[in-house]
Specification:
There is one protein chain. The protein has helices at about 45-50, 70-85, 105-110, 140-150, 165-175, 195-210, 220-225, 230-245, 265-275, 280-295, and strands spanning about 5-10, 55-65, 90-95, 115-120, 155-160, 180-185, 215-220, 250. By secondary structure, it is α/β, with parallel strands linked by helices. The protein has a single domain (about 5-295), classed as TIM Barrel. Helix 6 runs parallel beside helix 8 (about 230-245). The mean pLDDT is about 95. It comes from Stakelama pacifica. Belongs to the metallo-dependent hydrolases superfamily.
């Protein structure tokens, strides 16, 4: 692929450096993503570059990698040092628990690092405990909404990883804060086993897409179905692009997490083939220019 690729969602880790509870044995199939044993090893910039050698990567955004909350700032500090030495990542999305009444202090410290662009707190909650990433739906808490509102004070965006059933409520909050850019992770994670899972996803995305400061990542296909096929995921990808337009969608590899479900080449080839009928400008937007603009990376594209 000769079009410049700014990978909008990657993870790096050195497991001996920070605590990563979700990457710590024992592993089993009980969590939302099944066993993560296959990726529970160091993943460095060198590993990333080797994996992505066939794709013209010119930048990448690191999104919080699930380090223990007490290591949130340590992860950012480490990543800044990595970027100074290796040239990647180009931007950093740190972790902060927005439901913490004292979160403002952490946001201020994150924002002091030059490559930090935003915050992610995974908020996927589902009535089925096996599906949930959180013990309760934080997005319905007044304290969480207050923490979310503080992001603008520090010039931070929000990476939104939620389930479709949470989107309508979140859309009302997000609408009240047009100065906080929001980037939906992993196509909005439709839950196909829910009775109305596709309709819930469609209605939720429509509510969010109506807000001009919301964008979406074309990533995480294994979260739709671990055994995903191009035919199965193509309608979701095309509908997301139709709803958000080619100026608010970003291709992302989500490595190494997405490697749990398929080789990276299968993902990138899927996105490339999907966009084959688009104009060159549209493809350049999807693969690089949107991520560069939305995450304010300042790359020369």
């Amino acid at each position: 692929m000769t079009i410049a690729f700014v990978d909008a969602h990657i993870h790096l880790w050195e497991l001996a450096r920070l605590d990563y509870p979700w990457l710590t044995p024992p592993f089993d199939e009980s969590g939302p993503n099944g066993s993560v044993a296959g990726i529970a090893r160091d993943f460095t910039v060198a590993d990333y570059r080797a994996l992505m050698a066939d794709w013209h990567v010119v930048g990448a955004v690191h999104v919080d990698a699930g380090a223990a909350p007490h290591h949130a700032l340590a992860e950012t500090e480490w990543l800044e040092g990595v970027a100074d030495a290796e040239g990647l990542p180009s931007g950093i999305i740190g972790f902060a628990a927005l439901n913490d009444p004292s979160v403002g202090r952490l946001l201020e410290r994150h924002a002091a690092y030059p490559r930090v662009r935003g915050i992610r707190q995974i908020v996927n909650w589902h009535p089925d405990p096996v599906r949930s990433y959180t013990p309760r739906d934080f997005t319905t808490d007044e304290q969480w909404a207050k923490g979310y509102g503080l992001l603008a004070r520090y010039g931070l965006s929000f990476d939104l990883q939620c389930y479709p059933g949470q989107m309508a409520g979140l859309a009302r909050l997000i609408e009240r804060h047009p100065d906080i850019p929001v980037i939906i992770n992993h196509l909005g994670m439709p839950v196909l086993t829910d009775l109305d899972g596709i309709d819930d996803w469609r209605h939720g995305l429509r509510a969010l897409a109506a807000l001009p400061h919301v964008a979406i990542k074309l990533s995480g296909l294994g979260f739709i179905a671990r055994d995903w096929t191009i035919g199965r995921v193509r309608p979701f990808l095309m509908e997301a692009i139709e709803l958000f337009g080619t100026t608010r969608c970003m291709v992302a590899s989500d490595v190494p997490t997405d490697l749990l479900f398929a080789p990276v080449g299968r993902y990138i080839e899927t996105y490339r083939d999907l966009s084959a009928g688009f104009s060159e400008d549209e493809r350049r937007d999807l693969f690089g220019r949107n991520a560069n603009r939305i995450y304010r990376l300042g790359l020369d594209l």
